[in-house]
Amino acid sequence: MTEPTPARAVREPSLLQAFLPLVLLFVLLALSVYLFKDNSSYGGNQIALLIAGGVAAIIGIRNGRRWDDIQDAIVHGIALSANAVLILLAVGALIGSWILSGAVPTLIHYGLLLMHPSFFYPAACLVCAIVAVAIGSSWTVAGTLGVALMGVAAGMGLDPAITAGAVISGAYFGDKMSPLSDTTNLAPAAAGSELFAHVRHMAWTTVPSIAIALAGFAIFSAGAEAGAAGAGFEDLSAELDRIFSVGPHLLIPMVVVFALAMRRFPAYPTLLIGALLGSLFAVIFQPDAVVALAGNEALSRPMALLSGAWQVLIDGYKGESGNAAVDDLLNRGGMAGMLNTVWLVLCAMSFGAIMERVGLLERLIRSVLKLARSTGSLIVATLVTSFGTNVLAADQYLAIVLPGRIYRSEYEKRGLAAVNLSRALEDAGTITSPLVPWNTCGAYMAATLGVATLDYLPYALFNLINPLLAGLLAYTGFKILKIEVDGTLARRRDA
């Protein structure tokens, strides 16, 4: 009888080994940006992630890991991103169908009439924040209101990067503070705190951050007033009226999407329903535009309507109005337009999965923990770790769960209430995710809003301010709670 093969001894990676794939990744990403400029996300960054992931896998194999184990981790990591991929495809279809149906042109039309450049940026941020609190989803807000607000901003000649920053700031404030949000529920679950206690505790860092961000956007708007009429967009409303039959009834698909989201209907079917409703409304209210999109004179009118409504879900809206500015604004969307983002997400999740499975990510986190001697430094270490996980693992959920799992016992040992940990996880894990180009959130926002991540990053004021303010409060000891002997909570003024 053959003796079973003994299991290979797995060695713990060194700190140098843990840093090597990370350093290589940053070097390759820098080269990608240098060589390919704005096109770096169209293959260059993906190759960088795969090469860095390959080096991490080699390190793991040298330390005793089996390739089959690493491959299983990659498959599992990609499986974790499957929902994000489906949502990306659904949003692509939704954008295209809502443009063809006239929903997005209607919002742009009314937005141009109601909003003024002197308060546009803070208004955009505030509207997105309110809606995101109501539905608990930053992605849904960006894919619906965000797209329309980008169009309104273009019509006013405003900076698309600042507009994207305002949309993302508002969307992530609402996502963070909404009890309906998946990340808002995930953070207390990972840290061992209670949901509503977690939300109340977050208010001390989150509300001041959004207030400062709104003030910043107000300053940007005041400076933008003089350039209100963008070249080529003076007659945008009239042009939209000529191409589409606009009216408030075309906003029904958007109302349906928001209603389903508020009722906690899953994101993917919600967005897909919105996309299909958009195609249906296009056939009913924009039949000539649908037939024109089909572009096949040999088809009967019913078949042409079906073809156009189907085509917009695949390839987005493609129109030739004779106005280049309008065409640049509206010609977008479709599932095919999201495929490059899907490629980026798959590569990023593969890299993150390898880093986690071979122990390199945990090794990096443990080295950070050794430096956290005071309460303030422990919380700052949590913030840095969550952001670092967003960079390395490319997923906001891992940026919450992994540090939560590792730091939870340390917070308990030091007598710190779990709400301190759950707040820190959200202050960095949730908030910084759209600031990383290859993170699922960063890739999604760039693809949806049409602005590169590094372009809107300086203007995502809330997302930049919130982690910094959280670190400042940690070191001052303000609103840091500890667990008393009897289990009650009290404020700890311990830096």
Distance between the termini: 64 Å
Overall morphology? globular
Strand order of the largest sheet: 1-2
How many helices? 24
Q: What Rg is obtained from the alpha carbons, in whole angstroms?
A: 24 Å
Order of helices and strands: HHHHHHHHHHHHHHHHHHHHHHHHEE
Report the structural category. Answer: mainly alpha
The biggest sheet amounts to: 2 strands, antiparallel
Strand content: under 5%
Number of DSSP E strands: 2
For the residues shown, what is the average pLDDT? 86
- Helix content percent band: over 70%
Low-confidence stretches: 226-233, 490-495
What does this protein look like?
It is a single chain. The protein has helices at 15-36, 40-62, 67-80, 82-101, 103-114, 120-135, 138-156, 160-177, 182-191, 195-224, 236-243, 252-262, 267-285, 287-294, 301-315, 324-330, 339-357, 360-369, 375-393, 396-413, 418-430, 440-449, 453-456, 461-476, and strands at residues 480-483, 489-492. By secondary structure, it is mostly helical. The protein has a two-stranded antiparallel ribbon with strand order 1-2. The chain is globular.
